[in-house]
Amino acid sequence: MPTAEIITIGTELLLGEIQDTNTRYLARALRDLGIDLYRTTTIGDNEERIARVIEEALGRCQIIITTGGLGPTVDDPTRQAVARALGVPLEFRNDLWEQISNRILTRYGRQPSTNNMRQAWIPAGSIPIPNPVGTAPAFIGERGDACVISLPGVPREMEYLYQNAVVPYLKQRYHLTGVIKARVLHTAGVGESQIDEWIGDLETLSNPTVGLLAHPGQCDIRITAKANSQEEADQMIAELEATIRQRCGDSIYGTDNETLEDVVFQKLARQGWKLAVFESGLNGALRERLQSHGMPPEWIAVAESPYMPKDLETILRDLSHRLKAEVVLGVCLIPEEDKQSLTLLVLSPSGMLENQRSYGGPPQLAASWAIHSALDFLRRNLPTPLEEN
């Protein structure tokens, strides 16, 4: 099975002026083809440095994909850098120049400039990839069993050319038949060390593999399987997921793109209950998150000044009465000398439940931790499907 590296090119990426979304897209796309991705690199618009990075990658893997640096200006050096790394000159391709000229004429209603002609020069012997959705052609340079695939940096163009030209090329050249599939299980209310204690032996498996990724108030468990088909990968993941769920229990709240608020609102909807929220010490962060999920802002009260936890019960009962809400969540985060104290209250038809927690991590992550903790506390104290039946 071939291995791959991704090289994103552009000084604007290094300066933080734009966000690199191409690497994420390509990483997932390569995974779906069953190709192992071992390294990603971001480098500025410098021909010598780009060439050196490509040369190093050619010594480690079979597939190098670059994005960016294929524009018509002097500071678009990818073509020259790839030619330099492959040890070949640039050559002018009349077929590409015709495609570029027609594209500019039909799309912009003007004649192409001499600058645009730069885009018709590609490394000698390369396979050209015409670009019907943009003006920058792509190309594939080959050396032995390795290839350098250079794609535009514009995400829409890059994605189109990858799907329509690169995928067929990779499947044919490397006889790709396998897949790599991943599933993420989300946990809350327990730390990474506890999860590791429960499933540490599974983290040593070679296929499927198990990995942990910690976030404030949440820990993800990633299961990745290599197989000859989607069906085989699904079966491998399902068997291991069953074991993990048996060990982690209700600490697991969802999978893949599912969020804590998804789970909470699904439980509320099954009961036909309304939720009201009071937050203090979070600077409106909980309100913002719940509003983005579609919760009406008038159902979320934000304290303008810190409230003491002893006030919460009165506030929650008032909100429940005034808004006719069956469930009210209260969250109060108070900074102390070396930690942050969190008080959580949930008022529901089952009564009032309170929970006290403390956080000693980076202060800038305290609000995120508190939100995850609050939503998880609410999730655990709403009726489960078993109780509903």
TrEMBL record:
Domain MoaB/Mog: 5-173
CDD domains documented for this protein: cinA
InterPro entries: CinA (IPR050101), CinA_KH (IPR041424), Competence-induced_CinA (IPR008135), MoaB/Mog-like_dom_sf (IPR036425), MoaB/Mog_dom (IPR001453)
NCBIfam families, alphabetized: cinA_nterm, molyb_syn
Protein family membership: Belongs to the CinA family.
The protein's name: CinA-like protein
